[in-house]
Specification:
Blueprint: H1 20-42, H2 52-57, H3 64-81, H4 93-103, H5 106-118, E1 124-131, E2 134-141, E3 156-162, H6 169-172, H7 176-183, H8 189-200
Antiparallel strand pairs: 1-2, 1-3
Helix pairs in contact: 1-3, 4-5
The structure holds manganese (III) ion (MN3).
């Protein structure tokens, strides 16, 4: 049985950038629904005894319900950990070096990542991933992600941004770029650095 992870911070902790009501509904209702639906969807299928990573890696052979809800569970589980209170600022150390080497500067990276999120039509995610030890910015539709065998651009996510309307509509309405701008204030770069180190070792 898959379970929803507890947040390491309160629903109010990301205010004013991400409001408590959005966090409460997003984690407690949306993410919970992905977990419940995933548990129901794997029952009696080849995925029943697979880990979440195994499910994502063989998603082309599984049902649309497993794809949507398995992706939803993975994506949100990552999303909660790469945000936090007293966060934001800029990455340091090897991650910062890699960002500057790949994108030219932290500002140029932010611009490209924000553009990936802003231009994703409809619902989806913007990603910073590691592929063959290199950083790549990409985006996916719906609850797909770069770990899925059907992904156009594959790799290990180290930063993900949910650009579904449910992630921002209560506070930002149709202003997705404002939400993306505010997101930088809550990015937990020490967690992203940890994920970068794991993905490049
Ligand atoms: Mn969401």
């Amino acid at each position: 049985m898959f379970e929803i992870p507890k947040l390491s911070y309160e629903y109010t902790a990301l205010e004013p950038h991400i409001d408590a009501k959005t966090m409460e509904i997003h984690h407690g209702k949306h993410h919970q629904a992905y977990v419940t639906n995933l548990n129901n969807a794997v029952k009696g299928t080849a995925a029943e005894n697979m880990s979440l990573m195994e499910i994502l890696g063989s998603i082309s052979k599984l049902t649309p319900a497993i794809r949507n809800n398995g992706g939803g569970h993975y994506n949100h589980s990552l999303f909660w950990t790469i945000m936090g209170p007293n966060a934001g600022g800029e990455p340091t150390g090897q991650l910062n070096d890699a960002i500057v080497a790949t994108f030219g500067s932290f500002a140029a990276f932010k611009e490209q990542f924000a553009s990936a999120g802003a231009t994703r039509f409809g619902s989806g995610w913007a990603w910073l991933i590691v592929h063959d030890n290199k950083l790549v910015i990409t985006s996916t539709p719906n609850q797909d992600n770069p770990l899925m065998d059907i992904a156009e651009v594959k790799g290990t996510p180290i930063l993900g941004l949910d650009v579904w309307e449910h992630a921002y509509y209560l506070h930002y309405q149709n202003r997705r770029p404002d939400y993306i701008g505010a997101f930088w204030n809550v990015v937990n770069w020490s967690k992203v650095s940890e994920l970068f180190a794991e993905a490049t070792k």
